[in-house]
Amino acid sequence: MLASLIAFIPCISSYSAxxxxxxxxxxxxVILLLNPIFxxxxxxxxxxxxxxxxxxxGKEHREKMLTHEREEKPRRQWSPRSWQGTVIQALLxxxxxxxxxxxxIATDLNKKxxxxxxxxxxxFQDIYRIAENEDNQVRYLLxxxxxxxxxxxxNQKDEPLEWINRWKEVKKLDFSTDVxxxxxxSRYLDDFSKELISHAESEVSVAxxxxxxxxxxxxxxxxxxxxxxxxxxxxxxxxxxxxYLNEKQEYHSTLRREGISMLYDKRVHAKIIVxxxxxxxxxxxxxxxxxxxxxxxxxxxxxxxxxVVQDVSRYLSRMFNNVTEFQKRA
Length: 330
Known about the structure:
Blueprint: H1 2-24, H2 26-34, H3 36-72, H4 83-94, E1 98-99, H5 100-107, H6 111-123, E2 127-132, E3 137-142, H7 144-149, H8 159-170, E4 181-185, H9 186-198, E5 203-207, H10 215-225, E6 229-234, H11 242-257, E7 261-264, E8 272-275, E9 279-283, H12 289-292, E10 299-303, H13 306-321, H14 325-329
Parallel strand pairs: 5-6, 6-7
Antiparallel strand pairs: 1-3, 2-3, 4-10, 5-8, 8-9, 9-10
Helix pairs in contact: 1-2, 1-3, 4-6, 9-10
């Protein structure tokens, strides 16, 4: 409104001048008032005043709308394997602020991807930029708003080990989780893998050459129905027996219909499970009954160490990203 009043000042001044002239001579006042120049002048002043008032009112309305949107807009939920989600996982696992270079090493993102992720996270107030220590380097840390909005405590990273220890007690197994790694074999490996997948909160990633119908594979379907993101990279189904081949293809179609992402690559031979980027299982076990149920000797290592899990997650991401369109359809 201030701009509108300022614009109207010349109009008021001119009108006041006319009043003075009019007081001196009523005839002169009438002549001036009826002069086309003055009519156009006052019309223009009125138009300018109304236009500026309309613009000013529009600005106030837009500001109110933006304020309302900021208050009502829900916080963004980042996918764990998005650029932003990868940065969040790196900060959660580090438990300390990280520099740009430290984040690049931890996330394996290129310059463009990392800068975009940081920009988005800062915009949504999920992270802050700070300068600390004598080197005065800019560091990034998760905001209190992120922790509170996602019901995360600073010590939540230790929670997986808590349920693992409870599971160990129930199974009467004797191994230590102090170093973050432990060894499992046979049916315990299968049982733990199903328990791990069932505890997923956001994402399950699997690399395995053989995905057939079995209780372990069905666990993936169960967590997908809960809204967990599940992705698999495997070899395309193959079997000399057409009946068995059709069964394998049908089961893969079932997994897809359930919303599970499946990619094919004939080179896959790794057997890996990563859950929520917190726990990784690297083993010899395949996703079919003879292997997972203990008919064959299987064994593996489980790790909850943040650095190890991060390395395994990056390896899996490269596997998923390197699959060509031809291999996806194989």
